[in-house]
Specification:
By secondary structure, this protein is α+β, with helices and mostly antiparallel strands. It has two helices and six strands, in the order βββαβαββ. A six-stranded mixed β-sheet has the order 1-2-3-6-4-5, covered by helices on one side. The protein is globular and about 40 Å long. It starts with a strand and ends with a strand.
Length: 128
């Protein structure tokens, strides 16, 4: 059974998709942008500030779906520019502090929605 995950603590979907979907003991999130959930405005003008906002939004969806950073199995990260990789990694590592770390793919994308500098999606186990 599929359950839609919805929280006002993260930005609402800006298209025909869900913030997250829970199926059995797994949670799949949509890619999160550095948007303030209250205003819908993009937060930050550099990858460090934007990555923090993206991870706060991701955390809100994980929490609503019954998971957290410690139960994330896989992330897919999108960067506007691979020159931001080191700065992005520093922020990312500050949120994923438990072991084992999730598997991860990180790719550069020519253009991300709303011209942001980073986006992250995740797959997590739901805590029992």
């Amino acid at each position: 059974m599929l359950t839609q995950i919805n929280t006002t603590d993260a930005p609402g979907a800006i298209g025909p998709y869900s913030q997250g979907i829970r199926c059995c003991d797994m949670l799949f999130t949509s890619g999160q942008l550095p948007m303030d959930p209250k205003t819908g405005e993009i937060v930050g003008d550099n990858v460090t500030a934007q990555a923090h906002m993206v991870l706060k939004n991701l955390e809100a969806i994980l929490k609503e779906g019954g998971a957290d950073f410690g139960t994330v199995m896989k992330t897919t990260c999108f960067l506007h520019d691979m020159a931001d990789f080191a700065a992005f990694n520093e922020v990312y590592a500050s949120y994923f502090t438990s072991d084992p770390k999730p598997a991860r793919s990180c790719i550069a994308a020519k253009t991300l929605p709303r011209n942001v500098l980073c986006e992250i999606e995740a797959v997590a186990c739901v805590k029992k």
